[in-house]
# Entry
Amino acid sequence: MNTIVDGLRRTKGRKKLDFTDVLSYGYLALGVIFMFGPIVWLVLSSFKTSGEIVKFPPRLLPYRQETVVVDGYEDPLPLYIIKMDDGATQTLAQVRRIGLEAQMIDPANPGEIIKVNINKRQPVERVYFGLDNYIEGVESFNFGLYLWNSVIVTVFATLLTLLVNSMAAFALSKYKFRGRQTIFIIMISTLMVPLSVVLVPVFLVITNVGWNNNLLGIIVPAAATPTGVFLLRQYMLTIPDELIDAARIDGASEWRIYSQVILPLAKPALAVLTIFSIMWRWNDFLWPLVVLSRSEYFTLQVGLASFQGELNVQWNLILAMTVLTLLPITLVFGFLQRYITTGIATTGMK
Amino acid sequence: MLAQPGIKRARNAVSGVFTSIYDLIISLLDLIFGTTQRIIGVRGMPYVFVLPNLLIFGIFILFPMLLNFVYAFTGGSSFSPFDRPWAGTVNFDRLLACENYLEPRTCGEDLFWRAVYNTIGYVVFQVALMVLLSLITALILNRNIKARGFFRSVFFYPVLLSPIVVALIWKWILQENGLLNGILTGLGYDKIPFLVNAQWARLLVILISVWAFMGFYTLILLAGLQSIPADLYEAAAIDGANPWQSFSKITMPLLMPTMVVVLVLSLIRAVQVFDIVFAFTGGGPGTATLYIVQYIYSYGFSSPNKQFGLAAAASLLMAGALVILTLVQLIARREEN
# Structure
């Protein structure tokens, strides 16, 4: 405890924690609660049973009622703590409930049935993190298929984006040719035009190409991102032209120069674009929603949205599936956190 | 410890496989591109390199942009642009016809105007609140803070989440028997129908999108703050400047370029708000959180009587607003230089 306080005191190289420091840490602590609390609540809730999840007021941790197996009864019986009339308490198992009256037995003495008013029982519970919601959710939600579609889309769209964008960026940064400026300006000017503006005509194009209800309809159109071209071009401009000239004198083809001189040198920018592309494609919603109408092609996001519409009441399953959907991107963030934050800070793009 | 060499060997083997696959693909493509180069010469190669990107870009971005004009200036209900009769500015007239522009009820397309006013309200409050909070957070993170990386990640994490996930998380917290109402009743207050009340829904949509996006702008502002040279502050301190003076005379002026980028970027994004709201309130209750992109989406895709012309005209009007915002940014950037 002392070391923590010491650590807090050491701000700004001064001995004492001053008023503004306290305020700062107070703000940040509040920030952690607001930013991270909802996620924690989601994860905790996702372990609750369907009975527990509709309880109000909600409890923080997931609980499950204890059960006991008693001879003569097929199913495990739920346990309750009963407050007897004389004030003593007793742990009993419930056999059945009829109206306001519950028939209970003592597990140690299963022969005798005790009748108890239902208001006198308290369920015996313990904190329990069970995977039932996850298992049932995966079965009824077709999680595997949607995950597979999402992975296919993310992987292939990212590979295609990297290839196509880096080729274009190479040409735009390392060659002087007629139309170069025009191509660059047209691309950049569309940076700010969102997909939502051209939704109807893009859907027409996709339909005519025959790509609605086809994963290609999500993979290909997104590959020519102006953002990616711009980011890679800016980086490639910093690679010295002498390297290219030297390779050319050695007789390398232009393709060899691109693939074996430029690409290895552009690795940092390619890494940033890879991370962006994974984030974009994994979280895409509007575009897949428009292109895919048959559920066998749904990505996780579209699947989750339609699952929510279908089973409006089964929150326990929805929450478990939500956790599974945010898990992959969270893992990626955990491992590549530094690259992501610095990448965004230096390029100012999402 | 014993497992270490094994892991290393496995990793080398995996990366070896990837490298050889990469080399194989490169060599195969070299055959194609090498032959092309022999036919068209070095001067033609840049066009070959741009071609794939340009093809995809042209077909799926540029061409649809032009098609959008065809839809906007034609009528009828046909999806094929060739079957649509020329309508001139009818679609625009319909959208813009209004007796009193401040009263959406008097407009021919009242939904459009409701969406426009909702969007304006959302944009103003969301951007103001988000930029303010991002700035405060960035300023605090820029202090000599312990565990800065951790706090930065905490504020940034929601940015990574998909709009659907964000909407579901908050729907779960704000539903009638949710956590927030649980806390309220625990404190002795009545439950609040967060998602049923129009005012609450509007406010919450703003708060949730601030929650989801502010980490991104905090990061950009923090980078801007960290690029301000520390010796400026030291010099000011020697000259006897108080904290407020060094903030208003050093930090704010030098942060201005970053602020402009953040402001314009967040404005442009706010105008296009759609997916979080779509999954969170679906535009409701009633039309309380119906924003312009959802208006376009519903006329183009989800409504039973699809009106592509109207949707396209509305999207052109929105694009016009976005172009203006982008121009403002370009001019502001030029003035900085």
